[in-house]
Design a protein that fits this description.
Oligomer: single chain
Strand order of the largest sheet: 1-2-3-4-5-6-7-8-9-10
CATH superfamily: Calycin beta-barrel core domain
Helix content: under 10%
CATH topology: Lipocalin
Strand content: over 45%
Number of helices: 0
Length: 162
Amino acid sequence: MIELAPELEPLSCLVGTWRGGGHGEFPTIDAFEYGEWMCFEHVGDTFLMSAQRSWLVDDGSPLHLERGFWRPGSSAGRLEVTLAHPLGLTEIAEGTVKPSTTGTSIELTTREIGRTSTGMDVVALTRRYSIEVDVMSYEIDMATGSTPMARHLTAELRREPD
């Protein structure tokens, strides 16, 4: 096992594989239930690699996936995240990571969205995570060029045993 870089200690609660499910909604779509798998991996540098995939509970069909990097920001408690989405998007987000005696909270806001010429019209995202031992819950809000910021995803995942 690779020793975690000291700079990553505030993010150590993320390391591992997570599985669970959630609820999706947005003003322009029908609500849906989804399953989700997420993995945070340390490879010996000062960042975590992340992988995520989700599927519709109704029929198991693929829904979404992301690949990214999570790294400490320029000062204590700051966090920078870069994500690639297959929707023709890249997301650069910054925010805070706050460990406490009961768990860790992470809040991220997009700083920049890159979009291909056919990419989804997402203009902003906010992400809020709460990690308490082996339970992660999160909320993601999204805005598009035609829809103001609104709740999009709410989920709860549990860490899988090593």
